[in-house]
Write a structure and sequence with these properties.
It contains eleven helices and eight strands. With 274 residues, the chain is mainly α. Strand 4, helix 5 and strand 5 form a beta-alpha-beta unit. The longest helix is centred in the middle third of the chain and has 29 residues.
């Protein structure tokens, strides 16, 4: 996500110099070669020292350690934002780590796929996408406008959402589907111990449904832990839905089962890209 943003803002000439930091030096080398950053920094503090805009593009579990490391090096008037998939209480915790002259405006671009790393970055990733801005208590209107201009500048449509509403909604429509995909692969893997070669029979439906199970494990570990309360509620809803289907199948209630499928298909067919 961070590499794609770097490529996108350079393509549209929205920034001057981009300085990047990663704890993995090889990733920085690849980012420079890819053109996503102009030069690497050895530490997070060095990367932000002269920055007008700082973007946290890491697993959400790394946000607080990164901010603690670089907070004292942020210059007065700097704007901090991110591309994280969890907001909620995390927004307030990050705000509490910042000096008073630095403003934090969280953001979540609803874009990207299951591939991760700089090699998966694209300058056109955000074209026609949607980005959610989730301001906390310290986000001033001028700072919100600046972050809005950034995401509109790379091709996204921008909406504003409360940080806690964000986590409740995304738990259902993003976090839960990823868990379902991971669980289905795990189910098939465990069953393959009793039926060797089982996974070799998987067709398009299995591959399409489980595509997102190829996503970054460390990223999704952090999302699950940071948004665990909302994800647990979403999982309870999902388990209830599965149980309804189980009961209909057990009762051989074909009419009700077909109606449930029709209702679900209607809603799915009404979905449109953001």
């Amino acid at each position: 996500m961070g590499g794609s943003l770097g490529l996108a803002v350079k393509r549209r000439r929205l920034v001057g110099e981009i300085v990047g930091y990663s704890p993995e030096p090889a990733a920085l080398t690849r980012a420079v070669r890819r053109g996503a950053i102009d030069r690497p920094a050895k530490t997070a503090a060095e990367a932000v020292r002269e920055a007008d805009l700082v973007v946290l593009a890491a697993p959400v579990g790394a946000f607080e350690p990164l901010v603690k490391e670089c907070a004292a090096s942020l210059k007065p008037g700097a704007l901090l934002t991110d591309v994280g998939s969890v907001k909620g209480a995390l927004v307030g915790r990050i705000e509490a780590l910042l000096p008073p002259q630095v403003v934090y405006v969280p953001a979540h671009p609803l874009a990207g796929g299951e591939q991760s790393g700089i090699e998966a970055s694209s300058a056109t990733l955000f074209d026609g996408s949607r980005c959610l801005i989730t301001p906390g208590a310290m986000a001033r209107p001028d700072a919100i406008r600046r972050v809005t201009r950034l995401w509109k500048g790379v091709g996204a449509t921008v909406s504003t959402l409360d940080p806690f509403e964000h986590d409740r909604y995304l738990a259902l429509v993003s976090h839960l589907p990823h868990l379902a995909a991971y669980a289905l692969v795990t189910c098939a893997l465990e069953a393959s111990g009793e039926a060797p070669g089982l996974l070799g029979f998987s067709a398009g439906g299995f591959r399409d449904f489980t595509r997102i199970a190829a996503s970054s494990p460390d990223m999704w570990r952090d999302i699950c832990l940071e948004n665990r309360a909302e994800i647990l509620r979403a999982l309870a809803r999902y388990q209830q839905a599965l149980e309804r289907y189980r009961r209909l199948i057990d009762a051989a209630d074909g009419a009700s089962l077909e109606q449930a499928f029709r209702d679900a298909r209607r809603v799915r067919n009404e979905l449109r890209p953001s």
